[in-house]
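Risk mitigation, structural track. In case the binding assays with iron/sulfur cluster fail to produce interpretable data, a predicted complex structure has been prepared as a fallback.
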Amino acid sequence: MSTASAPKLTRKDFVTDQDVRWCPGCGDYSILAQVQKVFPELGVPRENIVFISGIGCSSRFPYYMNTYGFHSIHGRAPAIATGLKVSRPDLMVWVVTGDGDGLSIGGNHLIHALRRNVDLKILLFNNRIYGLTKGQYSPTSELGKITKSTPLGSADHPLNPLLLALGADATFIARTIDVEAKHQQDIIRRAAEHKGSAFVEILQNCNVYNDGAFAALTDRETKADTQLVLEHGKPMIFGKNRDRGIRLNGLTPEVVTLGNGVSTADLLVHDEHDPVIAFLLSRMAPPEFPTPIGVLRVEQKPTFDALMNRQIEEAKAKFGEGDLEKLLHRGDVWTVP
Amino acid sequence: MATNPIGAPLQKPVQERESVVIRFAGDSGDGMQLTGMQFTTESVLAGNDIGTLPDFPAEIRAPAGTLYGVSAFQVNFSSKNVYTAGDDLDALVVMNPAALKTNLPDLKPNGILIYDTAEFTESNLKKAEYTQNPLEDGSLDKYQVYPVEITKITTLALKDLNLPNRSVMRCRNFFALGVVSWLFNRPIEPTQKWIKERFRRNPEVMEANLRALQAGYHYGENTEIFASSYEVKPAPIAPGTYRNITGNTATALGFLAAAYKAGLPLFLGSYPITPASDVLHELATFKNFNVYTFQAEDEIAGVGSALGAAFGGAIGITTTAGPGMNLKAETIGLAAAVELPLVITDIQRAGPSTGMPTKPEQADLLQALYGRHGEAPLPVIAAATPADCFYAAFEAVRIAVKYMTPVILLTDGYLANASEPWLLPAVSDLPEIKVEFRTDPHGFFPYLRDETTLARPWVRPGTPGLEHRIGGLEKDYLTGNISYAPLNHEQMVRVRYRKMAKITQDIPPTKIDGPDRGKLLVIGWGSTYGSIAAAVKEFQEQGKAVSHVHLRYLNPLPADLGGIIARFDKVLVPEMNMGQLLRVLRAEYLVDAVGLNKIQGRPFKVAEIAARIARMLEE
Ligand code: SF4
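Fallback model:
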């Protein structure tokens, strides 16, 4: 990826002239603001950035980013982005998707983009509802969710996006929250810096169809007790008085209160490179546990696009640049005088 | 005295034939495809024009000896021009009873039948569902039957090599090839060369196969059973350099050549499906030509990735068969809306659903023309012969980038696997494919159209000052911004139609094979070319006013087609479907055209079309 030689960009350079059409108060506004805030710092010229989305409220995102953009069809953004990134490794390609787009109709493409480790930055806005189609439950809605399509409550168990990403062996897995501006910026920056598939779940409030889905997590009063903010190399501490933590009991994590013989030294220390810890974290959920936010997992692995391009370079080194005339005459040819 | 290719004097009389259609049939493990291909090479080097047709079972490893495990390869070699792989067989070589049972109905009365005596055991007859032995019940009386001890003599010839029995059995196909090579006076050097090359790391197997081939050849010469051999003189073939090519290989090379001419990388996104996978396999070997081959997670990702690559400025293509087309349909609609170049190849097979995956059909034409949501007209181009797949694929790319539109390329399972000699073009003679990416920000709008083509500009991401967004939502006619304005939508729908109409300016005048007016016009498209051409020729040679038009462009149709149709009394449309082009022609030109429809997963026989022509001329 080429880095900037052009004059320093500002937030404004990433704003388009299009009216933003999300509902007033939607969590998407904050995400757009954080992305536009971070992007000038990345040092990537905006013509080298592409946003690709599917369908859903989140997928309107590209229209509001003054970069190259492609608002595609439901669920298919990772596939389109893969073709682009493989053939244009010089571009920085972002995918914006939602819980319906990325985990339901497009689940297959998401899995495969992650396991291939295509160098894509994937932001999944998880509001646990279908917004654009006016309020049906989504694959991340809690069991028993009452919506227009499930008046007696949904009967299916929700999908855990982080576990799915882990199962697909994604090389960067993180979670953040729409209203946590600073945290979100850090995560977006880290995703941008990661070489390989970066999967970021952003918990996002849909104030029209699923208002307050993350209220306990974002409420000023409770959030210190409900959020577990992850820091690499630091013990897992949370709580208003920072007096609670996560300890391993055998292979099982438990919440403990510091004091009475329990010290920070007993707590589990976060290690972004340890897949076992990532697994434990991705399963932690209220009411038993706080909700972990931050980078769960980072791993360095060759990217799919790099490997594909390397094959082309190697083929050229071995056989020389393709010569069509020669190729057509390859094999059993004969001449009629 | 004349000598045969291995130096022995020719003693038996030679009968001349104008052309011969031969089929090799055996178990899928018997190597019949290889035998057929080698026989093809020998025939090509003997100077004949040829057409071939492989026919293999859908099952990968069907149980030995069963009817559904039979694999066959047909070769038509002639001293005249060849249009098809031939109708009925002049000669049939069968390696077991199952092959006899499934293929005998195609053998002409008095045709040559060669079979392996050792294989007609009670248990093999049972597997082939024979209740009585066809060798004994008189059912073969109307043929020239040659029992050949293929297994026995091959075993004898290889005795001192001490190979395991399994390896010996695998040499039998070369013995059979040796016999028929003698019978039809084919040179066996090309096969000897092939064996030496193929088994150069395995000298024992090389020796065994060479011996089997030679033993077969000597057998033909020395045994009493063949009274004479046959000769087919070289055909009048245009000078030049040739290679034998299947439709799938030609398709792959056509795409490659187009990207090469355009000076752009080629990106194929594809999901394995019969009979299209060979295009993926083929292109995967051309990486040094800046070819990306991406085996996607599904059909949708196959076309999606190709569209993504096209957005990035590559030649994006995808390949599939009918069921895959359905899955890709939504993305094709997106490609139509965002007006990016993309080629979608449908290598048609018999459907619906899984249908008969290894058998051809032409039943996806209406899907190609109309199988999308909304008003989404697209150019549709069809290949007529195996070698023509090269030019059709090339043309599909050329139209796609010139008009900034997805293009559907139709071939089928017959073209995919059949082969014919291809007069190799000089790369410099291929049409230019000029691509100019927009780089000038001045006055730029994503949907600003070129006046002559109505194409919108192609902009590579990475171009400063041209950052823009495209998508599936309806766009403003000029700016490309989202617009739900009623009149704007109608304007956009109409301009997308007008763009299709513009493409007619790229369609050359329609070639009429025969007089340009007369009693009967036969209109075809796709792989029926050979059968129609051969049938029509029979009538033209009798001085009848029958002509043939074969359509390459199914959308838009050539501008002169209506006028041509009007100059004929009757129109016949043979198709391997229930009459899809027929409907289009009737709707488009209000012509009372008549269909001839065959839906058997097999190409038309020349005789079937000729019979219908004869009837229509009499009526
Ligand atoms: S429906 Fe919900 S998610 Fe969609 S824009 Fe409105 S608030 Fe946001």
